[in-house]
Amino acid sequence: MRAVIGSYTIRIERRADLRWWHTVVASVLAILVSLFLVGFAFLRAGADPLEVYREIIAYAFVSSFGLPQTINRATFVLLAAFALIVPLRAGLWNIGMPGQLYAATLAAFGVAYAFGAKASVNAQLNGAIVIPLMVIAGLIASGLYGAIAGFLRGRLQVNEIVTTMMLNWAMLWIVAHMIREGGPFMGRTAEGEGFTLPTAIRIPQILGLPLTVYAAVLLALVLTWFLAKTTLGYRIRTFGESPRAAEYAGIDATRISTLVFTLGGMFAGLAGFHYFTGVPGVYKIPKNYGEFADFSFYGLITGLIARNNPIAAIPVAILFGGVSGGARFMQGKLRLAFGIDYALLGVLMIMMVAFQALAQYSVRIERAVTAPARQVGLERGESRVESPRH
């Protein structure tokens, strides 16, 4: 794209090589612009924006209660981002994180239920046996639930976005059936939520954080290596860049699409397993389980901002994990109107995505070079020789 203004030419061109620091600068600018814009909303609500942001940071990243909450939320978002990144490397969109994480959660609690976990919080169960079985059941259930969309896409060319959205709603109501109105997983006090896991089969903690937090960081490294260094990762990337070329190379579309959605479903399942079975104060399927479906879509934004880089998704997930918890705390402490925390998060997400899109382009301003004036006359004594063609 080119525009001429006076003696200047402005060129907007797509970058041939997008460097990591372009993404960092774009993210920082997006955060600053978001804070500036939302600051007007806080002023209108009668709050000092600086005080608001100070409360958010102090709670989310400093306080002894808020920091673990930030890390746990960030882990959930990070695993949900992996659920998007793997299929997106193959050029496919996984919007089914809610359904997949619920499938894993129901399977994991189903194993606990089969061992008699509903009877009492103090039930004496062998965690060394039950916990691994819960993990395996959750991964199988979420992987199979994700594979449905991948298989339909590869075999019948059914749009994966439509399929995953429909599967989300199906699993949402299955969960409601299981935990409400006499469902098998309903809590002992009949409060419309799932039963609480016994102490013996809760995810072990290290330094006050569940093991799933450390597993998520390790998975970021493993996933980066898998996508960049393995033959299967190369096949996934090739299929995403050019399905027709991949077909000529002998890469089966059905297998690749089914595989990436299976892996994506497993990552989403780990997100659900982490929060519902590993986060202190939860250890059950809560009444507001539907909010976790909405929160999983932060993983989608995280994956896009990180440009499908699992390691780069870590700081983005921490940002959303901290802001989501800190903004809710700030809203209550300063007695601000309900929803202003969502306004902050919404503007932040929009700006992050917009600035990442802009970072793909460079702007060059060039000044036009003025050509020397054409000589009108001839000096005395000079002769002019015309070309025969004139």
List keywords for this structure.
390 residues, mainly alpha, two-stranded antiparallel ribbon, 5 strands, disordered C terminus
Percent range for β-strand residues: 5-15%
Order of helices and strands: EEHHHHHHEEHHHHHHHE
Return the structural class: mainly alpha
Characterize the overall form. Answer: globular
Rounded to an integer, what's the Rg over CA atoms?
27 Å
Approximate helicity band: 55-70%
The main pleated sheet reads as: 3 strands, antiparallel
Low-confidence runs: 383-390
Strand runs, count: 5
Number of helices: 13
Output mean pLDDT. 88
How would you describe this protein?
The protein has 390 residues and is mainly alpha-helical. Helix content is 64%, strand content 6%. It has helices spanning 20-44, 49-61, 66-89, 97-114, 127-156, 160-179, 211-229, 231-241, 243-248, 253-278, 289-305, 313-333, 340-358, and strands at residues 2-5, 8-14, 205-206, 209-210, 361-367. The strands form 2 sheets. It has a 3-stranded antiparallel beta sheet with strand order 1-2-5, with no helix packed on it. It has a two-stranded antiparallel ribbon with strand order 3-4. A hairpin with a 2-residue loop joins strand 3 and strand 4 (209-210). The two termini are 39 Å apart. Mean pLDDT is 88; it is low at 383-390.
